[in-house]
Amino acid sequence: MEDTKLPRREREKARQRQEMLAAALDLFSQKGYHQVSIHEIAQKSEFAIGTLYKFFKNKEDLYKTLMIELADKFKAALQEVLKAKGDEIEKLRNYVKVKGEVFRANISVIRLYFAEAQGASFNFRAGLYSEIHEIQKEVLTSLTAVFASGMKETASKESQNRTFWRWPSMASPGISFCSGSNRLNCILILRTRTWS
Fold it and tell me: All domains of the chain, ordered by start, with CATH?
């Protein structure tokens, strides 16, 4: 593990920070971002308010950090599937499967993000959205590469493999799948309501 290579003091700081983020996530998920105070987060994480401010400027900074770290975690899981060895169909199947698992395991975070995105101030929303959008763009770039590889493979084959044959008619696989990916997100959010 990487943490064991850090000095003891740094490991302790990382542990404290994670405890604060976990407490904030729990409270935000239960009450919503606007209904939670920084004092409640400090109390739940069992740290003094001053200690919390050593790690985060304010509640907005804590929320943004939490969402970005979780988005990075989601990206890592999806990128791993998309960059794995194997054929494109299997990569896409695994992508949908892993995305469903990520949504299912983190439904409270995803609901929180979409619920709070509506009520956030423009400056806060713009900063968070641009960072999340960049993370999402990296995944979509990898996803587009899988589609492009599949189209190239199909074009080079003599047979008309029906699975990939439709792909060349798409103007841009990335853009087409991006809208499809958003639909998949909606379906996963709705489906997780029955799973949770």
Answer: 1-56 (1.10.10.60), 58-195 (1.10.357)
What tens-digit pLDDT sequence spans the chain (196 residues)? 455 588 999 999 999 999 999 999 999 989 988 899 999 999 999 999 999 999 999 999 999 999 999 999 999 999 999 999 988 889 999 999 999 999 899 888 888 888 777 765 555 666 788 888 899 899 989 988 888 888 777 666 645 545 444 444 443 444 444 445 555 555 554 554 444 4
Contacts 24+ apart (CB under 8 A), 98-105: 99/184, 99/188, 100/188, 100/191, 102/74, 102/77, 102/78, 103/185, 103/188, 103/189, 103/192, 104/188, 104/192, 104/195, 104/196
Alpha carbon distance 191, 196 (integer Å): 9
